[in-house]
C-alpha cells in the first residue's frame, strides 16, 4: 500500500484517448509523471523515462476524466421529487410550495448551518467523483464582503488549479435589457461565459430571454466565449444565430424533460456544428451524475432518431467541454503533456464509447485527478495513494484518498462517512431544523463556526439559483442568498417542511429514485421504461398518489425587510 501518492507510474488497459484521431488502443499504457500524461504507448513498450515506474493492470478501459459544465452542487444532497405537472418556464415551478418544501427550503437550512455546509461540500464533491467526474462547476461561500470559491479534490471550473486553465465565468440569472451592455462587454474577456438561457418551452416567455441578447444596434451578445445552459426555448433559427457567432450550449435532457416535457433542439444544434456539452443539472429534478445523464441522452436520441452516435455523446463529457472552457490543451483527452485526469471503467466491451455510456457507478474502478489516485477499488487505489476512507458505494467496496497537501481552509477535517451521517440526520429532522432557525437569532446557528472563518465572520453556502420574483432580493448576478428561505418568511417554510432522505451517492441501488421515476409523467415513456433496466432494475408502476396536494400551489410574495443580523450584505458590481 502506498504511504504517499505514487508520482510516476503506468496504467494498463484499453485506452480511449479522445485525441483528434479518436485513437483507441486495445491494450495500452498511460504513463503518468508529475501530474501529467508523459507517454501513451502500446502495452509492450516502455519509455526510457519510465524504466523504474510500476505498471498497474486495471482490467478495464481508461478514459479521460469527465468534465461537467452544469451542476448546482449545493443542492445535491436532496433527492428527486415529484413534479406535479408540466411547466412552460423556470419561474413557474420556482414559485410553488413544492419547490420550497423539497428544494429551496431544505437547501437554505443546510446552507446556513456551519457543520452542514462542511458536510455538503464533502458529500457532493464525492458524489461527482464516484461517477468519474474530475471537473465540475464549483461551490461558493460568502461572508460579507468576501466571496470564497471552494477548491477541493474535483477541479473547479471557476477556480482552476493549474496553469493555462482560464476560469469559467458563470452567470445564473437571465440577462436583462439593463444589463445587456455589461454582459456584452464581458464576452471580450478570457474564459467561458456560462449562463442559463431560455429555460422553458419555445412557445413560452422563456424564449424572450434569448431575444433580449440582441442589442438595439442589431448586434448580439453572443461570441465564442458564450455558453448557454439548457437553451430549451430556442428555435432552429435561434440556434443558427448561436452557431454563426461561435457560441456553445450545455444540454441537460433529463431535467428539461422532467420539468417541461421538451428539451433543446439538439438535432439542429449538432447539424449547425454547435459545440454541445452534457450537464446533469442537479439531483432534485435530474441526474445524480453524468453516467446517468449519458444514458438518458442516448435513450432520448434513439427514440427521437436524432442520429447521435455514442462517440458524440462521449465527446460531450470530454473534449467538447474542454474546448468550451478553453482547456483543450490541458484536458479532455489522453495525450502526452496533458494533465492526468483519468477514469477507469471495468471491462473492455466491443464498442469503447457505448461501454462508458453503459457503465454504472459500480463499474468505476479508478479515478485519477492530476496524476493522484482519488477513488477506486481498494486493490487499485492503494497501489497509487494512501486510503483515507473505505465505504460501500452502490453495493461495492470502494476506497477514497481525499487528503490534500494544502486543504481548503473552509472544509477542515471532514470524512465522507461523517458528512453523510450529519446530512441524513438534518434532512430527516428538517421540520425541527427549520423551526429552530426560524425562531432563533441567526447568529446562534453559527457558533460552531466554519473552518477558516474569523470570529466575526458568518459564512453561507451560496445557493446558485435565481431568487423567485417577488420573494426576496438576489445578488447582482441573480444568485439567491442562502438565508432567503430560512429567514425570510422562515415560519412559512417551517410550517410546510417535511422529513427528507439524503440522496444516495449512486443511482445504482437507489430504489427511491426509480420509484419516483415511474411517477414523472412528463418524461417520455422510453426513458421511464428503459432507464431502470440500465441499472438492473425492473420498471415500476406509477403510484396512485405521490407528493402533497398543495405542492403546485403558488407561494404568495413575501416582503423583504432586509437581511438578518450576521447575514452577508448584498454584493453589487460588474458582471
Main attributes of the structure:
single chain, 575 residues, alpha/beta, nine-stranded mixed β-sheet, five-stranded parallel β-sheet, 18 helices, 20 strands, 27% helix, globular, disordered C terminus
Protein architecture, described:
The protein has 575 residues and is of the alpha/beta class. It has helices at residues 90-94, 97-110, 114-129, 180-186, 208-211, 236-244, 253-260, 266-271, 290-304, 310-315, 319-325, 352-358, 378-381, 416-428, 430-439, 490-496, 511-517, 525-534; strands at 8-16, 24-33, 36-42, 55-64, 66-67, 133-136, 140-143, 146-149, 155-156, 169-171, 193-197, 226-230, 248-251, 275-278, 342-346, 364-369, 372-376, 389-393, 396-400, 460-461. Strands 3-2-1-4-15-16-17-19-18 form a 9-stranded mixed sheet. Helix 3 (114-129) crosses helix 14, helix 9 (290-304) packs across helix 18 and helix 15 (430-439) packs antiparallel against helix 16 (490-496). The radius of gyration is 23 Å and the shape is globular. The relative contact order is 0.18. Residues 440-449, 467-491 and 557-575 have low confidence and may be disordered.
Topology summary:
Layout lengths: L7 E9 L7 E10 L2 E7 L12 E10 L1 E2 L22 H5 L2 H14 L3 H16 L3 E4 L3 E4 L2 E4 L5 E2 L12 E3 L8 H7 L6 E5 L10 H4 L14 E5 L5 H9 L3 E4 L1 H8 L5 H6 L3 E4 L11 H15 L5 H6 L3 H7 L16 E5 L5 H7 L5 E6 L2 E5 L1 H4 L7 E5 L2 E5 L15 H13 L1 H10 L20 E2 L28 H7 L14 H7 L7 H10 L41
Parallel strand pairs: 1-4, 5-6, 6-9, 10-11, 11-12, 12-13, 13-14
Antiparallel strand pairs: 1-2, 2-3, 4-15, 7-8, 7-20, 15-16, 16-17, 17-19, 18-19
Residue share in helix: 25-40%
End-to-end CA span: 48 Å
Given helix and strand content, the structural type is alpha/beta
Number of helices: 18
Count the beta strands.
20
Calculate Rg over CA atoms: 23 Å
Main beta sheet strand tally, sense and closure: 9 strands, mixed
Q: What does the average pLDDT come to?
A: 87
Question: Low-confidence stretches at least 5 residues in length (pLDDT < 50)?
Answer: 440-449, 467-491, 557-575
Shape: globular
Beta percentage is 15-25%
| Sequence of strands across the biggest β-sheet | 3-2-1-4-15-16-17-19-18
Amino acid at each position: 500500500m502506498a504511504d504517499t501518492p505514487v508520482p510516476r507510474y503506468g496504467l494498463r488497459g484499453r485506452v480511449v484517448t479522445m485525441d483528434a484521431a479518436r485513437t483507441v488502443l486495445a491494450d495500452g499504457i498511460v504513463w503518468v509523471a508529475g501530474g501529467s500524461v508523459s507517454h501513451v504507448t502500446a502495452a509492450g513498450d516502455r519509455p526510457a523515462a519510465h524504466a523504474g515506474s510500476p505498471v498497474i493492470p486495471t482490467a478495464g478501459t481508461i478514459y479521460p476524466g469527465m468534465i461537467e459544465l452544469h451542476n448546482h452542487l449545493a443542492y445535491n444532497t436532496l433527492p428527486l421529487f415529484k413534479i406535479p405537472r408540466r411547466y412552460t418556464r423556470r419561474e413557474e415551478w420556482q414559485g410553488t410550495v413544492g419547490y420550497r418544501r423539497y428544494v429551496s427550503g431544505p437547501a437554505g437550512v443546510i446552507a446556513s448551518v456551519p457543520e452542514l455546509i462542511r458536510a455538503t461540500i464533502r458529500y457532493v464533491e464525492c458524489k461527482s467523483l464516484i461517477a468519474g467526474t474530475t471537473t465540475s462547476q464549483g461551490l461558493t461561500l460568502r461572508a460579507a464582503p468576501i466571496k470564497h470559491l471552494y477548491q477541493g479534490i474535483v477541479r473547479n471550473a471557476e477556480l482552476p488549479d493549474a496553469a493555462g486553465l482560464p476560469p469559467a465565468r458563470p452567470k445564473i440569472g437571465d440577462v436583462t435589457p439593463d444589463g445587456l451592455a455589461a454582459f456584452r462587454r464581458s464576452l471580450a474577456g478570457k474564459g467561458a461565459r456560462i449562463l442559463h438561457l431560455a429555460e422553458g418551452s419555445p412557445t413560452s416567455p422563456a424564449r424572450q430571454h434569448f431575444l433580449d441578447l440582441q442589442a438595439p444596434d442589431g448586434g448580439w451578445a453572443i461570441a465564442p466565449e458564450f455558453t448557454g445552459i439548457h437553451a430549451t426555448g430556442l428555435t432552429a433559427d435561434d440556434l443558427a444565430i448561436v452557431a454563426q457567432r461561435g457560441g456553445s450550449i450545455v444540454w441537460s435532457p433529463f431535467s428539461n424533460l422532467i420539468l417541461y416535457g421538451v428539451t433543446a433542439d439538439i438535432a439542429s444544434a449538432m447539424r449547425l456544428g454547435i459545440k454541445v456539452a452534457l450537464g446533469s443539472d442537479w439531483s432534485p429534478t435530474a441526474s445524480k451524475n453524468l453516467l446517468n445523464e449519458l444514458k438518458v441522452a442516448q435513450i432520448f436520441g434513439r427514440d427521437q432518431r436524432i442520429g447521435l452516435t455514442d462517440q458524440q455523446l462521449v465527446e460531450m463529457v470530454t473534449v467538447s467541454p474542454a474546448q468550451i472552457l478553453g482547456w483543450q490543451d490541458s484536458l479532455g483527452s489522453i495525450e502526452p503533456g496533458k494533465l492526468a485526469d483519468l477514469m477507469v471503467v471495468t471491462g473492455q466491451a466491443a464498442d469503447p464509447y457505448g461501454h462508458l455510456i453503459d457503465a454504472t457507478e459500480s463499474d468505476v474502478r479508478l479515478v485519477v485527478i492530476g496524476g493522484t489516485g482519488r477513488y477506486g477499488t481498494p486493490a487499485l487505489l492503494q497501489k497509487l495513494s494512501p486510503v483515507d476512507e473505505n465505504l460501500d458505494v452502490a453495493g461495492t467496496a470502494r476506497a477514497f484518498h481525499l487528503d490534500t497537501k494544502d486543504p481548503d481552509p473552509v472544509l477542515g477535517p471532514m470524512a465522507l462517512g461523517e458528512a453523510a451521517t450529519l446530512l441524513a440526520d438534518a434532512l430527516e429532522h428538517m421540520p425541527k431544523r427549520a423551526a429552530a432557525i426560524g425562531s432563533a437569532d441567526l447568529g446562534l446557528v453559527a457558533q460552531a463556526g466554519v473552518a477558516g472563518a474569523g470570529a466575526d465572520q458568518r459564512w453561507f453556502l451560496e445557493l446558485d439559483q435565481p431568487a423567485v420574483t417577488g420573494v426576496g432580493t438576489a445578488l447582482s448576478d441573480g444568485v439567491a442568498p442562502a438565508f432567503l428561505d430560512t429567514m425570510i418568511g422562515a415560519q412559512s417554510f417551517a410550517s410546510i417542511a417535511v422529513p427528507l432522505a439524503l440522496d444516495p451517492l449512486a443511482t445504482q441501488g437507489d430504489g427511491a429514485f426509480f420509484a419516483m421515476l415511474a411517477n414523472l409523467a412528463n418524461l417520455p415513456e422510453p426513458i421511464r421504461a428503459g432507464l431502470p433496466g440500465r441499472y438492473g432494475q425492473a420498471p415500476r408502476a406509477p403510484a396512485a398518489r405521490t407528493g402533497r396536494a398543495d405542492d403546485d400551489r403558488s407561494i404568495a410574495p413575501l416582503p423583504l425587510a432586509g437581511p438578518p443580523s450576521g447575514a452577508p450584505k448584498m454584493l453589487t458590481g460588474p458582471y
